[in-house]
Design a protein that fits this description.
The complex is a heterodimer of chains A (278) and B (297). With 278 residues, chain A is mainly α. Chain A contains 15 helices and no strands. Chain B has a two-stranded antiparallel ribbon with strand order 1-2. The two termini of chain B are 36 Å apart. Chain B is built from 13 helices and two strands, in the order ααββααααααααααα. The radius of gyration of chain B is 24 Å and the shape is globular. The chains are: A mainly alpha (278), B mainly alpha (297).
Chain lengths: 278, 297
Amino acid sequence: MTQSYKKQVFISKSIIYLFLILGAVIMIFPFLWMILTSFKTQAEAMAVPPKFFPSSWKATNFERVTKSLPFTNLFMNTGLMIVFRIVCAVAFSSMAGFAFAKINFRGKTVLFSLVLVQMMLPSQIFIIPQYQMLAKFGLTNSIFALVFPGLVSAFGTFFLRQTYLGIPNEIAESAYIEGCNKWTTFTKVMFPLTTNSVAAISIFTAVFAYSDLMWPLICNTDLKMMTLSSGLSTLNGQFTTNYPVLMAGSLIAMIPMVVLYLLFQRRFIEGIALTGGK
Amino acid sequence: MRQRARMVDVGSRDNKWGLIMVAPTILGLILLNMLPFFQSIYMSLSSTKAFGAYQFCGLDNFVKMFQNSEFWLATWNSVYFCLLTVPVGIFLSLIVAVLLNNKLRGTTVFRAIFFLPMVVAPAAVAMVWKWMFNGQYGIINSLFHTNVAWLTNSNTVLISCAVVAIWSSIGYDAVLLLAGIQNISKSYYEAASLDGASKIKQFFTITIPMVSPTLFVVIIMRLMASLKVYDLIYMMVSESNPALTHAQSLMYLFYRESFIAGNKGYASAIVLWTVLLIGIVTALQFLGQKKWVNYDV
C-alpha cells in the first residue's frame, strides 16, 4: 500500500517537473538564442543548417550597435524617466490615497470618481492632446516630456487608497490625540506603514514606464532623448537584416531591468501580484 | 462614548487638508486626462487644417472611417488577436499556476523564469522573436522543418504575433492566478480526496470555481490589453512588410494616421471607436460573469 502510494507520488511529481521544465525551456530559449546570435557573424547567423554556437565570442556586434545608438543617453533618459515617475506616483498618490481613505472633505465623492473614470479609459485616448500640449510649449524632446503622462497616477491613487483603508482608524486617531495634524499624521504615522504598497507601486511604475513604446516614440524624436525601448525600435530600419547586431542591441537594452529583477525577484513578483488586475 | 464619537468626527473631517492633499492628483487628472479626453472628442469631429488648426466637420471622420476597408480590417485584426491570445493564454496560465502551486522544490525558480518576459521591454522581446520567425534563416523553421514566411504571409502574421503575446503574458497571469489559488482552503481538497475525487476532477470542481473571481479579473485585463495591442505588432511588422494590413491593430492604425500621416482628427475617431469597443467587450463580460463567477466563498 505505502509502496504503491510512494510510487504514485513519484510519478505525479515527475510529470509535474517534466511539464515545468518543458515550459521553462520554452521561456528561456528566446533569450538564449538572443545571446548566442549576438556573438555570431552575419554569415554564421544565416548558415543553413543553423549553427548553434558562434565560432568565436567576439564583441564586434556590441561595438557596432553602441556606435549607432547612444546607449549612455538612452540609459540616462530611461533611468531619469523612471525615477521621476516613481517619485511623482508615490508622493502624489500617497497624499491623495490617504486623503480619500481617511479624511472627510467636501466634494470627495465627485473627485474620487475622476480617479475611477481615468482608470477605465485607455491611455491612448489622451495621447494626441497630451502631445499637442507639450508641443505648444516647446517641451518635446526633453526628460519632462517622458515623465509628463506619469505626473499623476490614477491607478496609484486608487491602489494606495485601498491600502490606507486597510489601516485601522484608531492609529490615526491616537496620532490626532498626540497633537498631530492631518499632515503630520500622514507623514510621520501613516505613510511609514505603507512601505509594501509603496514598493509595489514603484515596481509597477518602473516596469510599465520601461516597457512603454508609443509615448516615448511620439514625444522624443531626437535619438539622444529617446528611451531604451524607443531607441531600440529605431534599429529596425537601420539593420533590417543584420540580426546579430539587432540581438546585441536588444541584449544591452534588457540587461539593467533583468539585473534588478534577479536581485529583487521576490519583491518584483509579489509587487506585481499585489497591483494585479490593472 | 458620545464624546468619543464626536472626537472621531472632529478628527476625520477636514476640508482644508483633504483638498490640499488631493489637489496635485486632481489638478493633474484634469490637465492630463479630463481635458485631453474632451479634446479628443472635439478633434474627432474636426478636420485637420494647415498650421495645426482645426475646423468642425461634424461626423465626417466617422463616415470616412466606416467606409474605409483598412479600418474594418484593423478592427477585425484587433478582435482576431484577442481570440487568438486570450483563451489559449489564460488556459496555459492556469495550468502553469496549478503546477506552481505544488509544494515542490524549485517552484520559486520556475516562477521567476516564467515571469521573466514581464521585465523585458516588448521592443526587445519582439526583436528576438522576429529573428526566430524569420522566413529564410529563422530557427523556428529549422526546428520544425517547415518553410513558412511567418511574418510576411498574411495568414500567419497575426498568429505569430499572438504566440509572442501569449509567451510574454503567461508568467504574469500565472502569478495572479497562483495568488488566487493559494487562497483556496486546503480543507476542500482534503474532503474531495476522502471522497475519492481525482486530481483532474478536483481541478474542475474546486479550483476553477474557487479561483473564478481572480480568473475574471485576469480575463478582463487581458481582453483590454489585447484590444489595444500596439507595441508588439509595431516592432514585429514594420511599415514595409507586405502583410502589414493583415497585422495592423486599431492602435497601430491610430499611430500611423496620427503621427505619421498627420490626420489627427481621423485618428481621434479611431481611438474613440477603440474605447467604445473595449467598453462593449468589458460590459459583456460583466453581464456574463453572473453565469460562472463564484463570489460566495
